[in-house]
Amino acid sequence: MRISLSAALIATLAIAVVMFLLRAFPFLVFSKKDPPPFVLFIERYIPSMIIAILIIYCLKDIQLTAAPFGLPSIIALTCTVALHLWRNNSMISIFGGTIIYMVLNYVLK
């Protein structure tokens, strides 16, 4: 199905306006007063919960009974934690751990 150029531009403009309003909404609502306790709870605890879920998701398919016995995942996780503690930079941790995992996964399989 093909759409016209004008329809594509209108859809893009509509999406841009909605995205802008969604991004501006919290600043407009909470700029004059303190956020409610529920928002403070989310701000404080949700990032840690998401990281825990991501770690579980990354480690869920490890085969401990067959070679390489989850070694690439465990080493990459350890290196990711070490990189983050050393440099305290999420991007270095993410990319470093991913590169180490990919290399180990290629070499050990």
What would you note in describing this structure?
The protein is mainly alpha-helical and 109 residues long. The protein is built from 4 helices and no strands. The model has no long low-confidence stretch (mean pLDDT 93).
**Number of H- or I-type helical stretches:** 4
Portion of residues within helices: over 70%
Shape: extended
Radius of gyration over all CA atoms, rounded: 22 Å
Largest sheet: none
Find the count of extended strands (DSSP E, 2+ residues): 0
Rounded mean pLDDT score: 93
SSE class: mainly alpha
| Cα separation of the termini | 44 Å
Compact summary:
The chain is mainly α. The chain is 78% helix and 0% strand.
Topology, please?
Blueprint (H helix, E strand, L loop, with lengths): L4 H26 L6 H23 L11 H17 L2 H19 L1
Helix pairs in contact: 3-4
Which features does this protein show?
109 residues; 78% helix; single chain
